[in-house]
Structures are given as structure tokens and as C-alpha cells.
Amino acid sequence: MLAITDPDQNQLPEKSEPESATPRVLSILSVVLERLVNRDEMLSSSSSGGGRLGKNLEVFHGIRPPAITIPKYLDRIYKYTNCSPACFVVGYIYIDRLVHRHPGSLVVPLNVHRLLVISIMLAAKILDDEHYNNAFYARVGGVTNTELNRLEVEFLFMIDFDLTVTARVFESYCLHLEREMIMWDGTKLKNESGSRNTIEDIAEISVEDMESFSSPLSNNGGLG
Questions:
Q1: Half-sphere exposure of 146 toward its Cβ, with a 13 Å CA cutoff?
Q2: Distance of CA 162 to the CA centre of its chain
Q3: Closest Cα partner for 222 from 147, 120, 110?
Q4: How far apart are alpha carbons 118 and 124 in whole angstroms?
Q5: How many domains are there within the chain?
Q6: CA–CA separation, 147 vs 149, rounded Å?
Q7: Is 205 in a helix, a strand, or coil?
Q8: Residue 149, in any domain of the structure
Q9: For residue 179, what is the DSSP state?
Q10: Distance, CA of 114 to CA of 120 (rounded, Å)
Q11: Which domain CATH number covers 180?
Q12: No. of H helices and E strands in the chain?
């Protein structure tokens, strides 16, 4: 197994405080994002070989889908970065803005992890008084610092640097997420809350997984 970060001084900090329950918003977002990815993946398959459908976000693509799931990835970001739960909602808003500004964009297994770590990092810079730098988010997210910096710039230009989220917009998205959960079978979340993943379960990613995160445009390999 290959740790997601380097040892010694570059090792991610250990959690000395007792682990608190994962915020409900992470579970809600996991369900919503998984449904979005499944839908867009079907659209991508049905339109194979035609048009520009899904082409806009290829800059965020890895070589192949990573093994780590969306719930575990969100849980990892939350536990290591200590960013506020609101950052996850705002990060989702940024991704939604990106998709709406570029019709035909598809959030698929090849790009969803990069989109998440970038959008949540940007939200933390806007919302939180204290936040980690890009290098730390790169280690947590499994990308090289160089790649994260490059993709952050790509992301910012694609949303026209529109990072402002008003209280009304934030509330409307929270209501949207709540409605999504009401429509979803709550049994899945009950099962997940009964068997939470600890940080030890997801702190390491195999060599194969690290390679699957790699971006064709990255010289040093991606998400690792």
C-alpha cells in the first residue's frame, strides 16, 4: 500500500480529538452527487462518438475512475481539513455553476473527485477564517500541488471567478438538497450512519488507485 501522502514532516496530522459524527450534509451530498454521476455517465455512454457532450470538463479527467468512493472522499476532506460543513454546500454550488455555464458538461467518475477537492478548497478560502493552503489540500485530495494549482485556475476561469454566494442562494440550495433527500429512500443513509468509515479505512490508497487518479495532462501523476 502507498500512503496518500509522504511520511515524516509531510504526514497528515493525526486526529487527537474524539471524532465527531459526520455532518449530515456530507451524507446528503454523497447521495445527490452519486445520482448526478450515474445520470451523466449514462448520458455519456448514450452519446459516445457524437458532438461535444461532456468535452468541457475533460481537463479534470483522470486516466480511469479512482477506487475511492464519493462518500469516503468527502469524509476524508472533512476530517483532515476541518473545513466548515457550509463549505461542502458552497462547493456543490460552484460545481453547479460550472455545469450551467458550460452546457453539455458531464460530471462523471473520471472528474468528480478533482471537481470536489477544488470546489471545497475554494469555498474554504471564501468562508473560513482559517484554512489550509493548496499544498495541504493536494495531499488530502491525492493530487500533486502543481496539478491542483493548474486545475484551480482552470476552474476559476470556467466559472468566471464567480465565487460570491448570497444567503438567499445558499438557503435555496440547502432546501434543494433537503428535497432531494426527501425523495430518496432514507434507508441508505440509515445504513451508512450505522457503519461509518473511520479515517484509517481511507487514509491509504494503493499504487493502482494513485495511478487511476493520474491526469493525462499532469507530468508528475495526479491525485498523488
A1: 8
A2: 19
A3: 147
A4: 10
A5: 1
A6: 5
A7: strand
A8: yes
A9: H
A10: 10
A11: 1.10.472.10
A12: 10, 2
Instruction: Indicate the Cα dihedral angle 157, 101, 121, 135, nearest 10°.
Output: -40
In sequence order, the β-bridge partners of residue 204 are 3
Which one, of 16, 9, 152, 141, lies nearest residue 76 by Cα? 141
Contact 218, 146 (CB under 8 A): yes
Cell of 193: 450512519
Q: Is residue 204 part of a domain?
A: no
Burial of 159 (0-12, 13-18, 19+ CB in 10 A): buried
pLDDT in tens, the chain (224 residues): 222 333 333 455 555 444 557 888 999 999 999 999 999 988 888 765 444 556 789 999 998 888 899 999 999 999 999 999 999 999 999 999 999 999 889 999 999 999 999 999 999 999 999 999 999 999 999 999 999 999 999 999 999 999 999 999 999 999 988 887 777 655 454 555 544 433 333 333 333 333 334 444 443 344 43
Residue 28 forms part of a structural domain: no
Q: Report the alpha-carbon distance of residue 164 to residue 197 in Å, rounded.
A: 33
- 3 lies in a domain? no
Grid coordinates given for 65: 475512475
CB 151 within 8 A of CB 94: no
Specify the residue for cell string 456530507: 26
Range of the domain at 179: 51-199
55 three-state secondary structure: helix
Rg of the chain over all Cα atoms, to the nearest angstrom: 17
